[in-house]
């Protein structure tokens, strides 16, 4: 079953200390479940927070993540009054977490970490957990303000904004922070502050959700109006943009990569279009090696098919001007490089890609065959 992508501001599980063991209270997609009834939790971040009411000092607990006891920098532990705060740093995909109290296991969980735009990779048994529901917020209220006020919309002092105390650590190391989110902390411009029921929580209203009924694009276009007008003029629009899913490629909070990309541009493209094997060929188009897919394609849209940034042959000529100078004399004297009909495939025009792969090949010059004469015979069959 396809899980609906969503932005989760803070995924968290509470363990309430009772009879020497913890009992999980979680705002799941459709109910509140006991710890033992969920085999795996899905979080959209690369960290997992766990809290425990206890009078014991942190030294009485042992944390094992992915088989290693308190791996370097993997576990951050702090104690505030009688509340133990533990943050586990995760790796993408499957993670295992074990917490022992004085030699007794009190928590053993599987955590699957995957961003919302990769929801299809999440195992069916992994249960999404949401913190901002009334039952889960209750234990935090003695120390944290969890109700919004007018100043939270556009705060003068970001450290006093409602989200900052619990979420600021997520953006500390971002090379390219998105200013409205991580500089100005205008979180409530995108996250709804009122609790609402959604398809993911039909009986349990959740706060700070992002309205994605029409995709996140309407939120993005509030600020990126010029980009919206440009996209409206395109004849061919990239699928994710057409669905309003700007967050399929961009992280709205920030990234280690320019333009707030989730991954480098080529990885984003080949993974979504299932073209990973293309990069394994011995001969990869230099344009892809140097600049990536955007050397030829506009990731948002274009006036040309396949989101090309120019007509097909004109695009090739930009990097291969010597071919343009030859006119109709490539690869031999008198041979055309363009024509209304490709003799080998009469439904297409004759272009550079009639003979060359635009991405990669097993053979030199990006040819589809080892012997160039075999390529010639497609249009010039040998007479018997």
3D structure, described in words:
- The protein folds into four domains: 1-142 and 201-211, Immunoglobulin-like (Sandwich); 149-192, no CATH class; 214-309, no CATH class; 327-384, no CATH class.
- It is elongated, with a radius of gyration of 27 Å.
- With 384 residues, it is of the alpha+beta class.
- The strands form five sheets. It has a seven-stranded mixed sheet, with no helix packed on it.
- A hairpin with a 2-residue loop joins β10 and β11 (104-113).
- Helix content is 17%, strand content 21%.
- The chain starts with 11 loop residues before the first strand and ends in a 5-residue tail after the last helix.
- It is built from eleven helices and 18 strands.
- 23% of the residues are buried.
- The longest helix has 9 residues, at 225-233.
What are its keywords?
single chain, about 375 residues, alpha+beta, Immunoglobulin-like, seven-stranded mixed beta sheet, five-stranded mixed beta sheet, 11 helices, about 15% helix, elongated, disordered N terminus
Topology:
Blueprint: E1 12-18, E2 21-25, E3 27-28, E4 40-43, E5 47-53, E6 61-65, E7 68-69, E8 75-80, E9 83-89, E10 93-101, E11 104-113, E12 126-130, H1 134-137, H2 164-167, E13 176-177, H3 179-183, H4 217-220, H5 225-233, E14 236-237, H6 239-242, E15 254-255, H7 265-272, E16 283-284, H8 286-290, E17 301-302, H9 312-319, H10 321-326, E18 360-361, H11 372-379
Parallel strand pairs: 1-5, 4-11, 4-12
Antiparallel strand pairs: 1-2, 3-12, 5-9, 6-7, 6-10, 8-9, 10-11, 13-15, 14-17, 16-18
